[in-house]
Amino acid sequence: MITGKTVQSRKTQALLLLLSPITILLGAFFLIPLGIMVVYSFLEPGLYGGVEWTWYPYNYGRIIGWPLNDYETFEPIYLSIFLSSLKIASLTVIFSLLICYPAAFWVSRMSERRKSFVLFLITLPFFANLLVRIYAWLLLLRPTGFINMALQSIGLVAQPLDMLFSSFAVIVGMVYIFTPFMFLPIYANVEKLDYSLVRASQDLGATPLQTFLRVILPLTLPGIAGGSIIVFIPALGNFIVPSFLGGSKVQMTGNLIERSFLQSRDWPFGAALALLIMASVVLVVMFQVVRSSRAQARGAA
Amino acid sequence: MKRMLTRLAGVASILLLTTQMASADGKLSLYNWGDYINPELIDAFSKEYKVDVTLDTYSTNEEMLARIQAGASGYDLVWPSVHMHDIMQKLGLLQAAHPNQMPGWENIDKAALRSHEDPQGDYCLPYAWGAVGILYNKKLIPDLKSWRQFFDYAKANPGKVTMLDDLRETLGVGLIMTGSSVNSRNPEEIEKAEAFIMQQKPNIGAFRYDVIPLVTSGDIAAGHYYVGGVLNVLQNPDLLGFVIPEEGATMYQEDVCLLEGAPNSENAELFMQFLMRPENAAKNSERLTNGVVNTAAVSLLPDNLKTNPSINPSPEVRAKLQIFEDLGKDLRVYTRAWDRIKTN
Amino acid sequence: MNRILSSFKIFPSVFNIYGFLFLAFLYMPLALIVLYSFNANPINIAVWTGFTFDWYRTIFGGAAVETTFDSAFSESPQRIFEVVKNSFLVAVSAATIATVIGTATAIALARYKFFGKRFYQTLLLLPILIPDIVLGIALLVFFVGVGFELGLLTIIIGHVTFLSSYVFVVVSARLAGMDTTLEQASADLGAGPFTTFRRVTLPQIMPGVVGGFLLAFIISLDDVVITYFIAGVGSQTLPLFILAMMRRGLRPQITALAVLILVFSFVVATVGLLLRNRKS
Amino acid sequence: MGFLQIASAHKAYQTPEGTLVRALDDITINVRSNEFLTLLGPSGCGKTTLLKTIAGFEDLDGGDLILEGRSLKAVPAHRRPFNTVFQNYALFPHMNVSQNIAYGLDVAGVKKAERDRRVGEALEMVGLAGYGGRKPSQLSGGQQQRVALARSLVLKPRVLLLDEPLSALDRKMRETMQIELKNLQNSVGITFIFVTHDQEEALAMSDRIAVLSHGKVQQLGSPNDVYDTPANEFVANFVGTSNLFSGRIVENDAARGLVTIETANGRRLIASGRDFANGSAVKMVLRPEHLRLVDTGEFEGAGTLEGQVKDVIFVGSVIHVHVDVGFGRTAIVHHHHDRAGIRNAIEAGANVRIAYSPSSAHLIAAERG
């Protein structure tokens, strides 16, 4: 009567008000840019950067072998770089998982006071500047660095190990910077773990390994899956870590993209590579969505 | 809590206002390579002309070009290498500042007018030049003279040398070693250069720019580097050395150019004149340890710079230095070769 | 695992040693940076030549006393001040805007049923999930394409784009834990939607909002990849400044600056933690 | 015309599984001024939905809500002169007791002095004077309940809506609060609409009860009506315990007002009743407390049933005796154990006789289908 509107129409009004900022934001500065990038990937590179507005699907030909023209030849190296990026990202996930999983159990068994203090300690390093943290690993891993000095002084190695400028260094650096992304989801899951289930399994005669594989692991799997995805995705597209710790000898697709845009002035090719990464990310995310919704459906049934 | 957010928003808007206010009066925006100007000069210029100078930096010509093309139109002066100077002039990104009509032009070495597009210096002011050679650690390699020695050392000590992460510089070394021009457009020659670098690659520790700390600490014995590294050599002459290899080397030269649509072109022109003053040119060279383009400044330099064979090479050595030219579409051949080198 | 579990009791030291190593892994690089920020070697932070406070002093415009300091090796305090100011300006503005947008979105998705909700839920996760290099170049291509001048404004817009999603996630978690009948009660007692939001919903989700703001602030302050692509004139931020410097080897001054920022972040994080503990 | 009319209210919604649920299916109730009306029903019957639409938290799909002749359909929750006491009380955790109670007044723009006075009165009324400075989390469940009441009543609403407000309390507390609520309603003279699934609570407090099931009003009447003369089998079963026997009317003694029912297996039972013609299918409702275990021959003229004791459950004040009366039926008898004469007979396996007064038997028409 005051305005002649029902509860529903009032709600609709409020909803519009609440949703319009994000809609405008993501529409204008996320979806449209991604769309433009898709368009660019099908255009001819301009001689000095930018694009020529000519239909040019050959950027993809260069990567996957089809279609091709006189100027673009199939270079299997781009796929092999992509595969090695997948490998490095996967190894990063595996190592950070191996490091964080036991740590999550360690923290989850603490008293409340100690727990929040240790969690604080674990999160704190990640407030330091990312680049400086990466640089610190360069200092640690180099032949005259702290780790080599320590190894030599305890007589473990005679010659300094060549750790810097290798896939190893890249993986160490990425594991380091992504540790909280792996740790927090796993920890959130481990903390909720009901230990009476572990005792029940024990009581029902399961061996420690069986208990771990059949009770603890399945119950903490959502955290593992979440953490793995959150680490895998930025690791796949990373170019900062390989360019510093890989000595530019370890190539990841991210480096190629950066170079296409800022060095070799081939924007469409860079856009095509970026879409390749995007596509693999979407695949991984969809896989996880399907998996978890199936798990939910199973839970509901 | 809400009050805290409001206050933060307030602070943000005030900051935004002050940045905009600062741009209202006496401003100059420079877009230069990192570490490529003596900061004291900027301070001195600011004080003398009451101009607020901002300096942003880039790492490659292409990065700078990309950003200028991307609409970073607020800069006044840029420092492109000569071939990029040509490209930018062709693309209409520069405007003629006529440094050749400014006081102090008489000090400029006319041999430094290397641009094809700008032979008279109507557009840009030559800034500095230098060779790209090898910086090495004398404790590990007492005496280094040539690329041959460099690669032999690498063969004996894999991983102990670095080359620049720059496709033209590093392929350029390959071209020099296989006897071609660094501006070759011949795919076969480029292929040979690629093969040469590929052959060396297992022994090369990394492709990177930050070699000074690594060479100083001995993590790396020698690194492909710019003549600017001589600054460190002079501070640490017993430990470090810099050499222009016998086989020849690439050289670079940067010019100072006024951008089309520069918001503060008058201050930019003042800055060009300021740079041409011999005492300023000398002060800058001390810091950059680059080749001097200001003949009047040479006499003001300290002796160790004046006589340094890397900074001021003999005519025979100069003859072996090659400068990059714009390759147009053929750059793609280099890009492919470089992608393959870095991957395989 | 029951053996592992009992090992908590019988051999707690096994896990504690592991935990100690884990923390050592996290802190070793930081300790190194702190150490090197006191290294007197002006050229090369990797070679230790002595102890000095000079780098901290020069950040604030003081003169070096102990080292053979040459001003040529340091950035001017004004320059450092400028990039730090840019960084904070971007971080404060972007985090503030993202907090408003992210919170509004979280409320819309938590409190309303509407067609396309799933679409929004997925869409909102995308900016977090796609690699930042993809977002960075997409924004670059977009800003150039529409003729947007690159600068602080484009950086702020770019940051808001992905920070809103982070705030959304944090605030949504808080909203999910909030009793919806409180809002009904408020309406029931005569409060309009806005009053209800201001006096009931907002105080309830405030820890989430502040947490989201702080997270967004820290991420923005540290972002290098997206900023790298969309920065323009006079808009160099601290991470870009450090990136440019790292290409030539890190300066001791920068390590000192990094330590100062770490201390600052430490304070912010501590405040955030205290707030969270007080509220829950 | 009633004070508040709920006029053929309709509301349906989709479950996540995709089935359509009719939460309100043509509900019409005329709520009287100053009455204590209870909406009683099992969970999912639509009572909470009805309460929410009255409060204005949800829209009606169809029908109307009319307060003194004025439709409320377009009036948002915060403008309706109704207040709600929530099941979980919904006290604002970030405000203390006084601030909680003052909230509605504050929002309405009542001046501070007036506000303080009324908050003080409200605290006094619910017996919590001196608790104003406490946070809700520092109060017991019963105290929180009183705060929630005070918070609503301080606004002097036309109608107070109570959504299962006693369900979170323990049994003792609940009984105390039932009395207090009833007294409060009498003294403030406000219409209470009370939602519960607890039939004892409904019977104890209400002026009228609306029994709801599947979105429909099954019966609307006083507690006595609902209990003594349930309108259908659902009400009979939901309100109190019932023994139900279905059958057909075979004799109709109009003079004595008695009918005889024959069950499917031929057993004959008598009941008082006039409204049914011979041959009509009916159900006979017998409350357990109206059944007595008797010695043979006692109580001429009463209805009787014979059977065998299956279980004897001692619940304190009475003994619940489950008697197998044949044809697959069990009758429940609430037996008062002071009747020593037959106490010995009550053990599992004993043959017993059950008697009832025909007037205590209530007949309802058997539902079709």
TrEMBL record, chain A:
Tell me if Transmembrane is a UniProt keyword of this record: yes
Q: Which residues form a coiled coil?
A: none
PROSITE patterns in UniProt = ABC_TM1 (PS50928)
**Which is an annotated Pfam family here?**
BPD_transp_1
Query: What are the alphabetically sorted keywords of the record?
Result: Cell membrane, Membrane, Transmembrane, Transmembrane helix, Transport
* Segments traversing the membrane: 15-43, 77-105, 117-140, 163-190, 211-236, 269-290
Membrane topology, record value: Multi-pass membrane protein
Ranges where the ABC transmembrane type-1 domain occurs: 82-288
Record InterPro entries: MetI-like (IPR000515), MetI-like_sf (IPR035906)
From the Swiss-Prot or TrEMBL record, state where the protein is found. Cell membrane
Family membership = Belongs to the binding-protein-dependent transport system permease family. CysTW subfamily.
Q: What is this protein called?
A: ABC transporter permease
The organism of origin for this protein: Shinella lacus
Lineage at the top is: Bacteria, Pseudomonadati, Pseudomonadota, Alphaproteobacteria, Hyphomicrobiales
From TrEMBL, chain B:
User: Which keywords appear in this protein's UniProt record, sorted alphabetically?
Assistant: Periplasm, Signal, Transport
Q: Which residues cross the membrane?
A: none
In the record, which residues are listed under signal peptide?
1-24
Q: Where in the cell is it found?
A: Periplasm
Family membership, please give it.
Belongs to the bacterial solute-binding protein PotD/PotF family.
Its annotated function is as follows: Required for the activity of the bacterial periplasmic transport system of putrescine.
Instruction: Supply the name of the protein.
Output: Putrescine-binding periplasmic protein
Automatic annotation (TrEMBL), chain C:
Q: Which membrane topology describes this protein? A: Multi-pass membrane protein
Intracellular or extracellular location(s): Cell membrane
- What start-end ranges are recorded for coiled-coil regions in this protein? none
Which keywords has UniProt assigned to this entry?
Answer: Cell membrane, Membrane, Transmembrane, Transmembrane helix, Transport
Superkingdom of the source species: Bacteria
Q: Where are the transmembrane segments?
A: 20-38, 88-110, 122-144, 150-171, 256-275
Residue ranges of every copy of the ABC transmembrane type-1 domain listed in the record = 84-272
Q: Which Pfam families match?
A: BPD_transp_1 (PF00528)
Family as reported in the entry's similarity comment = Belongs to the binding-protein-dependent transport system permease family. CysTW subfamily.
Which PANTHER family does this one have? PUTRESCINE TRANSPORT SYSTEM PERMEASE PROTEIN POTI
The name of this protein is: ABC transporter permease
The organism encoding this protein is Shinella lacus
What is this organism's lineage? Bacteria, Pseudomonadati, Pseudomonadota, Alphaproteobacteria, Hyphomicrobiales
TrEMBL record, chain D:
Tell me the InterPro entries matching this sequence.
AAA+_ATPase (IPR003593), ABC_SmlMolc_Importer (IPR050093), ABC_transporter-like_ATP-bd (IPR003439), ABC_transporter-like_CS (IPR017871), Mo/tungstate-bd_C_term_dom (IPR008995), NA-bd_OB-fold (IPR012340), P-loop_NTPase (IPR027417), PotA-like (IPR005893)
Any idea which GO molecular function terms this record carries? Answer: ATP binding
Could you list this entry's UniProt keywords, alphabetically sorted. ATP-binding, Cell membrane, Membrane, Nucleotide-binding, Translocase, Transport
Please report a single Pfam family linked to this protein. Answer: TOBE_2
Family named by the database record: Belongs to the ABC transporter superfamily. Spermidine/putrescine importer (TC 3.A.1.11.1) family.
Subunit structure, briefly?
The complex is composed of two ATP-binding proteins (PotA), two transmembrane proteins (PotB and PotC) and a solute-binding protein (PotD).
The protein's job, in short, is:
Part of the ABC transporter complex PotABCD involved in spermidine/putrescine import. Responsible for energy coupling to the transport system.
- What is the protein's given name? Spermidine/putrescine import ATP-binding protein PotA
Q: Which species is this UniProt entry from?
A: Shinella lacus
